[in-house]
Each structure stands twice: as structure tokens, then as C-alpha cells.
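This entry is passed on directly below:
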Amino acid sequence: MLLWVFQVLYEERPNGVGVITLNAPDKLNALSADMGDEFLEVVEHLRTETSNVNAVVLTGAGRAFSAGGDLEFLMQRHNDTPSRNTCETE
């Protein structure tokens, strides 16, 4: 199975390993808000729709894993987005 989500690539291999690739090599895979959103989408997919993955490898395309990025800032921005700043209750 191959799932392409713009700047984040997810591949589920038959040996029970999932591979998440940050795929913005022209920017040394620097984490942007959009990439952070896409990464969270892949993680949610892993959490809810994948039962046969035993390990996940996180890697970067090109010559760098990631030039960095403020993960705390990305999470705060994600939570501050009005359309995503809701809580579902059961």
C-alpha cells in the first residue's frame, strides 16, 4: 500500500514495517505547518486504520533528514486553527 499526502509519503511494507518519508528535499525537509498537518494525517491513519504494522521508520528524502522546525510551534498553530480547534465529545 502506498499513500501519498503531498509533502509526506507513507509506505506500508509487507514485513510489518511502515515508512514515513518527509518529502520536501528542495527545502531539506524543513517542517512547515502544512507538512506538520500532513504528518499528523499519516499518524492518524496509522493509529486507526493499520493493524499489521509493528514498527515505523521516519526518514527524509534527499540529502537531509530534516533541517528542523519548531515542533511546539507547529502543534500550537495546529490547535489555533479555528476549523481544527474543536473537541468532539461522546
